[in-house]
Amino acid sequence: MRLDKYLKVSRLIKRRTLAKEVAEQGRIEINGKTAKASSVVKAGDELRIRFGQKVVTARVESIRENAKKEEAAMMFTILSEERLAKVEPQFIDDTE
């Protein structure tokens, strides 16, 4: 299943268009490799998603085309959630 569709069906990200945008920004990894929205997700894969100052690592447990709210929570297991240190604007090097 495509990554963007999986994120929507599993409710890790609420909308497919938002999942696509997050993937295009390079904020999602599948098994340690940066993923595109069209990347294929399989059961057993490990997803690492960066939401602003938070990074969520989840393992894909199952793939379903449709899922009710109760079923969606069983499609993945959260392995870790970590907060990133806030970077002060004066320390950002935007000369690149």
From TrEMBL:
Assigned keywords, A-Z: Protein biosynthesis, RNA-binding, rRNA-binding, tRNA-binding
A Pfam family of this chain: S4
Keyword Transcription attached: no
SMART domains registered for this protein in UniProt: S4
CDD domains on file: S4
InterPro entries: RqcP, S4_RNA-bd, S4_RNA-bd_sf
Domain RNA-binding S4, first and last residues per copy: 1-63
Function: Key component of the ribosome quality control system (RQC), a ribosome-associated complex that mediates the extraction of incompletely synthesized nascent chains from stalled ribosomes and their subsequent degradation. RqcH recruits Ala-charged tRNA, and with RqcP directs the elongation of stalled nascent chains on 50S ribosomal subunits, leading to non-templated C-terminal alanine extensions (Ala tail). The Ala tail promotes nascent chain degradation. RqcP is associated with the translocation-like movement of the peptidyl-tRNA from the A-site into the P-site.
Record family assignment: Belongs to the RqcP family.
Subunit structure: Associates with stalled 50S ribosomal subunits. Binds to RqcH, 23S rRNA and the P-site tRNA. Does not require RqcH for association with 50S subunits.
Protein name: RQC P-site tRNA stabilizing factor
Gene name tied to this protein: rqcP
